[in-house]
Amino acid sequence: MKPTPVLVMQDICKSFPGVKALTDARLRLFPGEVHALMGQNGAGKSTLIKVLTGVESPDSGQILLKDQPIRPESVDDAQKLGISTVFQEVNLCPNLSVAENIFIGRFPMRGLAIDWKAIERDARKALLALNIDIDVTRTLSEFPVAIQQMVAIARALSTEAQVLILDEPTSSLDEDEVERLFDALRELKRKGIAILFVTHFLDQTYAISDRITVLRNGEFIGEYPAAELGRLELINTMVGRDIDEAGQAAKSASSADRPTDRPFISVQGLGAAGRMHPIDLDIYQGQVLGLGGLLGSGRTETARMLFGIDRAESGTIAIDGAPVRLNSPRKAVRQGIAFCPEDRKTEGIVADLSIRENIILALQARRGIFRYLPKRVQTAMADEYIKQLGIRTPDAEKPIGQLSGGNQQKALLARWLATEPKMLILDEPTRGIDIAAKLEIMDLVKTQCRKGLAILFISSEMSEVLRVSDRIAVLRDRQKVGEIDGKAADEQSVFRMIAGAEA
Amino acid sequence: MKNTLSQLTRSHLFWPCVTLVLLCLANVYFNPGFFDIEVKDGHLYGSVIDILNRAAPLMLIAMGMTLVIATRGIDISVGATVAIAGAVVAALIGGSLVIKDGVQTYVSNVPMPLAIVAALAVALLCGLWNGLLVAGAGMQPIVATLILMVAGRGVAQLITEGQIVTVYYEPFFFIGNGFIFGIPVSLYIVAVVLAVLLLLTKRTALGLFIESVGINPVASRFSGISARALVFWVYAFCAVTAGIAALIITSNVKSADANNAGLLLELDAILAVALGGTSLAGGRFYLIGTLIGALIIQTLTYAIYSLGVPPEINMVVKAIVVFGVCLIQSPALRDLLMKHAFRTGGTA
To answer: Structure pTM?
Structure first.
């Protein structure tokens, strides 16, 4: 007997001014399955989830929960119906305790008072079900993002959910933590909960999913059993054209090595107590230096010191052989350094400003207040970069916040390329964006490198670091443990170095 | 047709303008001669001119406040700054009428230009203090400017030695009561400050930087904008607008009252900014909108007085109208009303 789906979405259409986000989109979820929702950025995944969780209301189409039509009006509403969501950005209250976060808005009462004992007990139980054993009375912000993510999931599950939606839950987790999350998901599967899993990581899709639904340009492309859809096929379905699988083009695309005699920037013993052990780095123009290492190994800390955000307490930096002090981003920019931060939303884009304004921002900042670029020049510049980097937008006047992640990242790249920098620091430039855009970004990195830029490339995905880097500096526990030739390296050799088995 | 209409309603100036027009119509209803303007002694007289003239100090301060609010800040010390700058200029000028060899001449304690520069310099000092606390020490703007708000009137009292300082030097009265080509001098001052600001914010990168810092200070800093210096000078500028307003107010009433000059002006200024469509959360700002906001407030005050509302309750009336105006301008409420109108329209 064929099981009946717990949730069906049929012929969902949704338009935003100027954009058709969803056209007859479909989705079926069965109890006890993990269902991956795949598609490029802008394919309509987020919109579909927003419709399902009541954030947006569909223009047409219907949603059936156990054969009953539903029309959630808000996230709360959806949750009451049994559809719980963990959004991409953890939206918890960092200054409340873990237990409070799990039960906020529906504290169990005892008479007129909140039953704190029950809250703590149940919170602990909910987390133990996910194999997390922490002190739930401590403030949430004391815990790493991974734990916060688990807390968000525990919160979603504590509402007797039948359907659990996870929107990119793993983008800030390291591998162990992903494994822990997956264990928890398998447990939930056994309990018969339907799980909708949105991710950009292919490995994870195959590790956990039973079935895959692919969207492209807002349209339903197909629903496939995970076991019957090969990786290459999946990517082709998502992208709609044939591309090599990510890894294959890796080595061939590697740029010709022509290190100049002198490094553009030479760092000696740069460190700060509690943040980073002293590190030595040489970055050459026309070369990509990758920083390899796990989450928390000091990659971002290094980048921030180089860009003058965090002050180094020891060590020296020399640019073109001359010693410099980089104690503010402004100074770093003056030296020709550019920085795309890890957290695009809070540190990169200026959401309400237009794409044009975002693109010219750094250049204008360097020119100062009075040498204002004429609007005509700004527009020409923005249009040029939109074309050159393939930023998908109707025009340059759209607020950048409305673009998809990959296009925002490209606009940030444009912001820095407009300043004609000598060195580009990219901290997780591919996080949270789809595979086609990832490939585009990496190609852009290679192109810019060939034009003579020095590039420091940071990514949690080792395959990406290997793909673009000429050399890789390997970090572990906030210190550098070695450096290897990017062409000779493979994942195994890097991981061996991280694990400490250099021999 | 429908398209242009919807474009019009989406313009940030639409709702402030509608409000102002409605208030003017209300005034006309109670006072048919509201729009009458007559020429007396070569000067323009009339309710509208009066409103414009009286709104001048508020318009000036609200423009400074607009920039502060655009950077995610707020400055609640402008009223106190008005009191201080007013006290300085009044104390320095003072003045008397002296008859020397049968010729009447006005004598000031110190030369008037010097007194004006001194008052503006003291206002600037107030702004630098605020800027130092907000941008330098990283204090929350409302707390940082609260210090001067509370202390400022005390400082003004020290300058005036607890008295109301009267100015007898007639040339000084020109600023607040004079006319050039029949139009009040204060309006020229507003026009000059507005022109300077529009030039700075539209023709230089200042507007872009202020908006960028207001929307995302971290990203702005990472793009190489010196966010702190920018915020610092914005507070300084705001205080200078308060200083200019103090000159007009002091000149207008020919005296400086440390206790009452510019009282609650900060709240009117913030309200003007909000009415003008600038979000108190910072970011995009609208100078012209702010001016309309200031005019809305002054027109409302005028209407309340001309209606003969007893002075004891006129604050209540003002509050009610302001509440209504804010409701009209709330996008959430507008959407709700639109939806409702659409629904009832649909079933009819």
So the answer is: 0.75
